[in-house]
Structure formats: structure tokens, C-alpha cells
Design a protein that fits this description.
One of its GO terms (molecular function) is glycosyltransferase activity. Belongs to the glycosyltransferase 2 family. Pfam families: Glycos_transf_2 (PF00535). The structure is a single chain. The protein contains 32 helices and 21 strands. The protein is α/β, with parallel strands linked by helices. A seven-stranded mixed beta sheet has the order 3-2-1-4-7-5-8. Strand 20 and strand 21 form a beta hairpin. It is elongated. 46% of the residues are buried.
Length: 819
Amino acid sequence: MSGTVTRVVDLSVVIPAYNEERRLGPTLDAVTGYLSDNESRFGEWEVVVADDGSTDGTGDLVVARDDPRIRLVAGDRNRGKGNALRLGVAATRGSRVLVTDADLAAPIEELQQLDKALSEGNAAAIGSRSVPGATILSRQHRVRELLGRAGNLLIRRVAVPGIRDTQCGFKLFDGDRARAAFAASRLNGWGIDVEVLRHFRRADWSVAEVPVRWSHQSGSKVGPLDYAWVLAELARLRARSVRPADVLAAVCFLLMAVALYSGRFFDPAHRYLPDSLQDQNQWEWFFAVTADNVAHLRNPLFTDLQGFPGGVNLMANTVMLGLSVPLAPVTLAFGPALALSLCMTLGLAATAAAWYWLIVKRVVRHRGAALVGASLAAFAPPMVSHANAHPNFVLLFMIPLIVDRALRLCEGARVRRDGVVLGLMAAYQIFLGEEPLLLASTGMALFAATYALVRRDVAKAAWRPLAKGLAIAGAVCLPIVAYPLYWQFAGPQSYHSVLHGDNAGNSPLALLSFAERSLFAGDADRANALSLNPTEQNAFYGWPLVLLALAITVRLWERPLVKALAVTAAGAALLSLGPKFRVPLTDTVYPGPWALLADKPLFESVIEGRLAMICAPALGMLLALALERLASARSVTTLYGGLLAVALALLPIVPAPLKAVDRAPVPRFFTAGMWKPYVHEGESLVPVPLPDPGAAEALHWQTTARLGFKLPGGYFNGPYGPDRAGIYGAAPRYTSDMLRDVRYTGSAPTIDANWRAQARRDFAYWHAGALVLVPQDNDDRLRKVVTELVGRPGKWTGGVWVWDLHERDPARRDPHEGS
């Protein structure tokens, strides 16, 4: 029956139906019989059948009932379950609304369990087959059940975390809230259950998941393709839930990253970042060799293409297998220069977006404040410095996710699940960069210790779930990384530690000065005097930002979060001074707290100045808190005065685009494959002088030649001496040291029989097939020395001088001579 009725009833039952002529009759009998027998509990009731354009006698069956409490609402055509429910719920009058499927897979008697949960103050009580206490009397086909479980898992991850079973068709709602939620829905298919539950979550209306009895009924309308359709609807739902402000923030971060790398981004194969020193050559080689290992199914943890014959322990060289392996197809198709450029540009934007997500979720709600805070976290001066050369310190998008997961453990809601996820995240971060994870853990420890002192009640409640979750995370992470870490610390070409000297800490002045790449206040001479090199300007926040952070801390000191962030930033800055530091403008030297950690395992290889990078996200969050407070200020003077102070603190450290120059062309000897006749199986091609951390252009020649030949020497971390101390580059030999000295000084020793004998031993050690001299500084002296060492002049071919070291018929003419 149809008609307009305004009288409120206690309970409305909505049954969506499409061609349910055979099953609907028994269902209506069961529902109306049960409600009639229990009117003392459920009160006045009605049943609304929402016909979704049926082509059989479904509608006629309802009309034939001739019962004013059973009403029919019919759509003009078949649109889907979502449309039917929207029509049906809109037509209800009940103070409570039950939605149940036409097959009554969950018996109507289970209503009492849902009603009890609703009466306890919940806005909705939904039947569940996945919570303890649920009973499944008759199961679906195994394939359908697996698809359902997979769908539910995905739904829990992307739509309504915490609800285990969204698709059980037996749900009881508060009437007014149900009508509001269904009216706001837009999905027409099976995904409407998720959409409505998301509406309840966003409105902060509590939802109880209640175990029910459930039996699979034959004649289900859910086909295999419907699972894919639900996923498509979830994607639409997820896309609609994204706030425009969040999209704008992501676009801003991407534009900022592209602007920073603009000098190289649009032509990466022919542009070079000179402030990377030799690191761009090194990292392109890392990406190239990883892709080559993947393509040929070789061990991704080792190669002898560089450092021949000893080789390179790639796991001990931060090749970022977590990205260089997935990007192998890009590297193979477009070259390592493009792959590295995309990796660093998109990775920097992703890092900023991850900090933005964490700040919005955990620190402030104001999107504009979060945008500024995340920009500082990702584009602070030390981050820009490392953006020249170190993708492992640029791609930090996992760190905010790890921080959030650790905070979830403290809440103690789902310790086992969060512990497993944290373990997987930590394992992946190890394959992105171990040192950033160590630094992040140090920062998290500083924050946790301070917050625990300030909020002892929170710490008391959190330490047990946190400890349990960390134990689970370790149990998950260790089996994944155990073998790679064993290879790193005990495998071929492994080393014990890399010593950086006693001057790798920051000067106190470095924390207050401006970095070289600061757009408005950069001072290259001062920055270089206060840092190891342009890639290690690890502080340089500028005195205006330091003063602003101090003012924010004093103004908001009553907040525990501010205290913890301020102590974290100050503690990291103090640690970054190193094991000892000199008071500026004096000769007074004090021991630093880093001295307690400097000789400990793992910490002994850390460049301690990098600890100041921990300050970037801490300062970003303090800034976000201050901006959110300013946004709510009632006084215009306070608002504009505060914004002016923020602008004056940030403008001096706005980064300028990274310097980029044209790359030196690769000689035709390498690009045209002219090297091939000179290098036989098991031999190497020896550049003069050998590549080392100060001059590693030979790595670029090798990648241009698609890694067709092996190189002695190189730029990597490897062992030296009986104690296997870590050094940069291959272990030196007499001939390699001498050739390097000639290159840099122009001064050559007298080549006698001893030098020639030593050169023969070194050539044999390197399995040298040929020596190659590319035009460079002092190349005339180098050419003379090599001629004397080999005993015959080289040949000019393909833009290089070549000395073929094979025994050959003197009458045989070089195939490329005169080229």
C-alpha cells in the first residue's frame, strides 16, 4: 500500500528487494509474526519493502498483503541496493529503523540483541559475523567467503577502521540519524552500507558491532562482479571524502619539490647538481646496478661492477632497495638519471604530505597551520641540503607513519594489529635508510621520555601496550631483515664502522646561521665554514626561527605536547653538537652528551651533526600549534602581529632552487660501445686515475655503457685493513694513489723499474684489460706517466686515450685507431 502517513511508530523494518517474489513471502511472515508476538518490547511497528524495479511479482505480493503496517516503496527501474535503501529509509516513520535483507540470513529473532545494544546509548547496532560470539550455521561457497573476507579487510583499512563486518545485512539504527545518513548517501550499489557507517563515524555517532547467528541462503543476488563493483564504489567514496584543502596541500608540496629541483627536473640526463659533489654519480649508479641485478635475477645485495675485483656490499651502502627495486622498470626503460630525479622529487613531496597527514591527525585541525608546519618539516634547511645528494634523507615519508603507529600502540586498542603493522613499516624503512630510522627513533625516545614526565598518568596507561606492541613489531621485523642485515655486517666487503673524525658535529653558530641555499639570507662562505660540505648543512635554522620557537614554547608552555616538542628539539640540537663542542669566539671546549653514544654500536657510524634534522618536524609542529592558536585569536592586533612574526622567521630560510649545471658529455668511446674489444670476460676497464669519492665521473660512463664493463676503485663504503674499518672508496694501491696525486698536483715521480713492476702487479690485481685516460686537468702528465708504466704510447680513439694491456701482434692495427 502507498500513501502519506505522518504518525510515528516505534520500529520500522526496511527490506530492499529485487525480484524476490519467491523469498519475500516467508520473510514477511517471519518478520510480522515475530513483531506481533513481541509488541510489548518493540511497540508499534511497520515494514517498508523497497522494491528496486523488480520485473517479477515482488510488488504485487506486498500489495496483496492488504495490511496497513506493510508498505511498498517502488523505484522506477533497477538502480541497486543503495538506491532502494535510500527510498525505503526515507519513507520510514520509526524512532528505530531496522534494515534487513530479504533472505533473512540473520534471523529476525536476533533483533533483540541489536535492540539491547541500541538501548545502551549507541546510535547504531549492526549485526556481525566476525566478532567473538557470532555463529555461522551455514557457510557460503569457499570462493565467495574468501572474496567477502578480502573485501571486508579492504573496507576496514580504507573506509571504516575498527568495524569488522560492514556487509552483514542486519542493522538497527536510531531513526532520525538513519534518515539523515541515508539521505546524505550517494552510492546506489552494495557500498551504501559502508557509506552510511562512514557518515555515523564522521558525525561521532557511536556504532556497536553485535555478534549474530547467520546462515547462508541460496539465491543470493551478489555475483562475483559485484565485489569489483563494491571496490569501485569504495574508491568513489574515498575520493569524495578527500577534502579540497588536503588536495591543495599535496599539490603545493609537489610544486615546491619541482621548484627546488627545477634545474635538473626537466632534463635529468644532461644536468648535474654540483653541490652533490660526486653523490649524484654514485646514486645513479646505485639505481642502475640494482635494476641490472633485478633484470638478471642476481643478488641485489652485492656486485663487483665497482670496486673490482673485491666488489661492493650494496646492503652496507644504502642503495634504498625499498625504492630502487620497485623503480627498476623505470631505470631500465628511461635510465638511472630520470629514476633518481623522480624518486627525489616525488619522495620529497610525499614526505611533506606524510608530515601534513600526521600533523592534521595528531596535532592541529587547522589545515593552513598544518600546511605551514609540514612545509617546515620537509623543506627545512638541512632537508634542502641533503636534497642535493642523499635521497635516503629526503624520502622520509615512512617516518610520520611509524610515529603514528607507535602512538596507536600507546592507546592500546589493537595492540597486536598495530604491532604487526609497525614491524612491517620498520622493515620497509630499513630498506629505505637505516640511519634516518635510527635518528627518528632517537627523536621519538626524547619525545616519549619528556611526555612521560609531564603526563605520568598517560605514561602509566601506555607503557604496557607500547612494550607489547614493540615486542610484536620486533618479532615481525627481524625475520624480514635478518638476512640482509647479516649480509650488511658480516657478508662480503662488509665493514665495522665508518669514522667521520672528531669534527662532524655542529657548531652552536650553525644552529643560528643561514644555509647556503636560503633564498634571501644565504651565505655560502659562512655556511661552508660551519659545515662539512654543502650536502651536510645539518642545522642552519636561523636565529629568527629559533627565537620564534622559544616564544611559542613560553607562550604555550602549559600544554604537555608543547613541552615534549620543545625538549625534543632542544635535546636533538644539543646532541648534534657532537662529543665535544667549542663555545663560539672562545677556546673553551665542553664535552657534549653525544659522547655517551659516540662509541656505541650503530651510533658510532652516525654523522652526529645530522641529529639536528630531528628539530625540523618538532619545530614544524610547534609552528602549527601557534598558527592554530593565532587563527582563533579575537584581537586583530594579535592575529596580524603573530603572522608577521611567523613570516619574518620563515622568509630568511625559504630555499632557493638547487644549483644545476650542464653535465660533461660522455666520450664516444663509452656511448658507442668502442670499449668492447679491449675488455674480455673477467677483466676490468681502468680509468686514469681510478674513480674515487673525489672524482667518480667514471661511474656515469659505466652506467651510460649499460654496466657493460667492471671498474676497479670507485665511490662506495668498504673495508680497509685487518680490522675492516669502513672507508670511502676502494682500498688504495700504490699505483692508484700515485695516479691520483698526479691528477691533483701535476707532479709525477720518476718512473723506474720498481714503479713499472708495481704497476704490473696492480694491473694484474685489477684484471685490467685496458687503461683509459679522458681529457682532464694535468692529462698531459698523466699520459706521460702511463706511457712510461706500460712501455708504449696510448692510442687516441673515441675521445679518449687507450692503452691495451693484452698481448697482441704488433702488426695488428687497432680497429678504432684514428677515430
